[in-house]
Amino acid sequence: MTRPRFRRRIGWLPRLDYFRPDGVDDSNIEEVVLTLDELEALRLADLEGLYQEEAAKRMNVSRQTFGRIIEEAHRKVADAIVNGKAIRITGGPVEFDENLVSAFDYCVCPNCGYIKPHERGKPCRFEVCPKCGSHMVRQVNIKKGGE
Q1: What rounded mean pLDDT belongs to the chain?
Q2: Whole-angstrom Cα distance, residue 13 to residue 100?
Q3: pTM score > 0.70 for this model?
Q4: CA–CA separation, 40 and 46 (whole Å)
Q5: Cα(9)–Cα(40) distance, rounded to whole angstroms?
Q6: Which pLDDT score is estimated for 76?
Q7: What is the mean predicted confidence (pLDDT) over 27-44?
Q8: In 3-state terms, what secondary structure has residue 10?
């Protein structure tokens, strides 16, 4: 039996969770699923330019685990770009950094951690998680003082 995964800390959530290549028929498009922790690794290493050791500390994982996460993220993004696949961003074993600042609310599955942007006028408790079938709960991101 494998040991349970620790939740990886993320400090940012994307506004968009789906990207697709232009000119590809939607009915025939293949998807690559990029988890939120993989996206966070890409953001920290490739966008912010952090070394793996510092990025791993921010995500609350070991440097070796960060290396595996970023390697998998790079492989998935390369597959999507080279083979014309869509990228869906969702889920993953994550927890939110206390300094997360966002103008958006999210529906979160309390059992498996699946996350999706909240749709106005549609209560999260009526949403069913597509991964495990549980009812979702609302995650409100609170802005810290002065931000």
Answers
A1: 83
A2: 8
A3: no
A4: 10
A5: 9
A6: 98
A7: 93
A8: strand
Q: Are 71 and 17 in contact (CB under 8 A)?
A: no
Sequence ranges of the domains in the chain: 7-100, 101-147
Task: Give the residue-averaged pLDDT of 40-69.
Answer: 95
94 pairs with which residues across the strands? 8
Q: Which residues contact 26 (CB under 8 A, 6 or more apart)?
A: 20
What's residue 98's pLDDT? 57
Q: What angle (nearest 5°) sits at the alpha carbon of residue 141, between those of residues 140 and 147?
A: 145
Using DSSP, state whether 8 is helix, strand or coil: strand
Domain covering 101-147, topology? Rubrerythrin, domain 2 (2.20.28)
Residue 87 · residue 19 · CB < 8 Å: yes
**Digit-coded pLDDT (tens) for 6-24:** 788 887 778 788 999 998 8
